[in-house]
Amino acid sequence: MEMILVMLVGAVAAVLANRGIAVFNDGLRPIMPEHIEGRMDRRSLALTSLAMSFGLVLGFGIPISLTASILLIHSILLGTDIIGLSVPGNRWGTPAAAVIGGAYGAGLLLGLEGFVRVFEALPVDLLQPLEQVGAPVVVAFIAFPALAVAIQFGIGKGVWTFAASAFVRQLVVWANEQQLFSFGTVTITVNPEGLALVTGMAFLLVFAMGESSSKQDGTKMDLTALFSHRVQRIRKNLISFMVMGGLIAASTHLLVMAGDPISLQLAAEGKQMEAGLAAAARALGFLPLVASTAIATGVYGPVGFTFIFAVGLLLPQAWLAGVAGAGIMMLEVLLLSRLARFLDRYPGVREAGSNIRTAMTRVLEVALLIGGANAAHAMAPGLGFFLIAGFYVLNEAAGRPVVRMAVGPIGAIAVGVIANLLVFAGIMAVPQ
């Protein structure tokens, strides 16, 4: 079932890209109309997709997938963008894209399993230390609403948001220890990170809505009216998006794939409820970007606003997640025009979406670097910290050929390989 789902996701995503209906890379979406409307040839578009996505697949998607043996969706859908746009968009090209995309998905899943088997056979264990890469992410993630508030509304409000989140987290920890959430013989343990995250998001939304209502100046632009023909183009492909939503939601429920590093790490630890909340928070951050680019270009994202990942994690059955995922995608497409009008009415919310993405990225860069350093130290005590620090500063000096978010995971894997080579050479003992 897992293999079939991954192959279907790869096949459908490649077809959507091939036909110019949907691409995953947010930076590629605004370029698509250039080709669709005849101002860019297919070869140039394919080369652009390769340049924008290939490094992220190898440097971000696959390394983070290896830390938890769950496929990060970027490793699949960035690849299918390249596949779909590299094959001609004609009568034989679309079936070819489906076949190649399905094979690519299967190859990723088999390759991940193959890496796990190889790692298990090595004298220096990589798998258990690599789990530490995501450990700081779970706790550090709750700081992103405070950073988003500080970016948009000033450091004062950011500090208040951070303090409120920290207080709520510690209050929940204390309440759990005192078993205050007991009902008869049943004791409920409330997740402190989840409630702290909700608190921070509440502060952010209140500030954003307040700013929006105070800045109305009568100069709104109706995106839907301006790009009505492109919105209609997305609606014409509603069934395709529903199929994609159902497949991804079911796959996420089975823990075959995840939509972001935070929910991936939480799901790997068995915390599906918390992972679902994290996925929902991320979806709120990406909603303005996806909605705006979809309306302006007529090209949607194969995962929509990414709420399908939250649905997959929160519902109890895979088939139910699949049905709900299809329904969510249908609602997103049908409500696209109304959502655009809402964002026009509340520009502060639109701006908050951009700041949420920036804040998430910065928090993840720090958390994954710390996690990567801890994992590297576990595989090669002392040497691991040195190598990760060196990798980071040299990457910065070289102009960041590896995105900062991937430095920790890639560095940890590299240290594991180096540690095993040193053990084989007899110049390092196996860490105890």
From TrEMBL:
Keywords assigned by UniProt? Answer: Membrane, Transmembrane, Transmembrane helix
Highest taxon listed in the record's lineage: Bacteria
Query: Which segments cross the bilayer?
Result: 46-72, 92-112, 132-151, 238-259, 279-300, 307-331, 366-394, 406-430
For this protein, the record's InterPro entries field holds: Uncharacterised_YhfT (IPR019733)
Q: What is this protein called?
A: YhfT family protein
In its UniProt entry, the species of origin is given as Melghirimyces thermohalophilus
